[in-house]
Amino acid sequence: MSTIDASIVTMAIPKISQSLNTPMNETEWITSVYLVLICMLLILFGKLADQIGRIPIFQYGTLVFIIGSLFSGISSNLWFLIISRGLQSIGAAMTMSTNMGIITEIFPPSQHGMALGLNGSIVQLGNVSGPAIGGLILSIASWHWIFLVNVPIGIIAFMFGHHIFPHHREKLNQINIDWPGFITFAGFILFFYLAIYIGQATSYVTPLVISFFVLALILIGSFIGIENHVKEPLIRLSIFKNANFTIAIITTMLIFMTVYFNNVIMPFYLQNNLMFSAGTTGLILMFIPLANIISAPIGGYLSDHIGSQKISMIALFIFIVPITIFNFITPKWSILILLAAFLIFGFANGNFQNNPMIMDNVGKEEQGIAGSLAALTRNIGFTTGLSLSTSLVYWGVSIKAHQHFTSYPYDHPDWFVYGMHFSYRFALGFIIINIILLGTLMLRKHAKN
């Protein structure tokens, strides 16, 4: 639910904007606030989870998420909805930062690949199926139900967790948080994304946007300085000296950036270029998560037997096929080619085993912070992919039109296709960078052996 809600709102923005009588650019903050607050809070809750217990943080987070979903669903104005989404994001950050740590704590190392692969299939299902599920809900109900549907499911999830999870006493006396580190890190996330969102709407070379980028750079520098000198840092930065862990983090971010290209671009292409309804678009987009949820456990099983790096490298080469299709496809092509590309994309995504690569390269005492870093990387990939894909599409449209565009060119749909091809060239570049990074790591490992 927490990952679905990062993307499900994209399909509902037009209806929410019309229903609440607010401009589209203001309504888009419903998505942005959720993603940015999660990124700000993940490390904090990951650290708390390592200190007082991952299961309590996860369970309390489920309750907070349910309450935030209820308030979002009954919202009657934009500001109440944005505040409710903020509450929802707190609960989401609490569950996202702890789920993988709980898994590695409960399952033996020999089963981490399978367990994390199954978890990955559910997470990825949420990540890529948001627009599809949103389209289906909106075809039969009002936008309020994209939030209200979480309430009964969330209650069932909480009760199931209460019954299944081991019960441990919270170690509240062990809480020791590096607050200066958290404040500087949260400030970095805030100003970095303010710069991205404002730059996307206006220009990246305005004094305001440049000053926000500079301030973000100062804050991340301050955060690194603080973490290197405090006794109990929010993140032990020496964790990044492990090349396996660091490259796993980088490749994960680039993969999730690539995944979000589809979430942003394909709903426009399917509805405005191929003229499908929102409901049909939702059904078509379901091909990606269906392939993903089937292939991720298989990838996890193979990861336990041949290694997460090898299976991930195979997945990267598979990614090249659908992204190449996206680079050339036009409305004249058969829809069957696009459906096949979606299936292959979902299959590749499910087999990219980023979770085992991340979690198996840190000690038991840092599983919480590693899990929160994995979730942070995923969310940074999504938010960056959202802004980057949008900017690249309309950059391409502007090149084709010989004038500046920031919205869909309804009078010239072929310009959008050109912009779509332009953006997917960069997505292909991300995959090639990942192949180089992971290939270098595997060659170094082979040379040592």
TrEMBL record:
Domain (Major facilitator superfamily (MFS) profile): residue spans on this chain:
1-446
Q: What is its main location?
A: membrane
The protein's name in its UniProt record = MFS transporter
The UniProt entry, under Pfam families, shows: MFS_1
Location of the protein in the cell? Cell membrane
Entry keyword DNA damage? no
Biological classification of the source: Bacteria, Bacillati, Bacillota, Bacilli, Lactobacillales
**Does this UniProt record's set of keywords contain Secreted?**
no
MF terms from GO for this chain are: transmembrane transporter activity
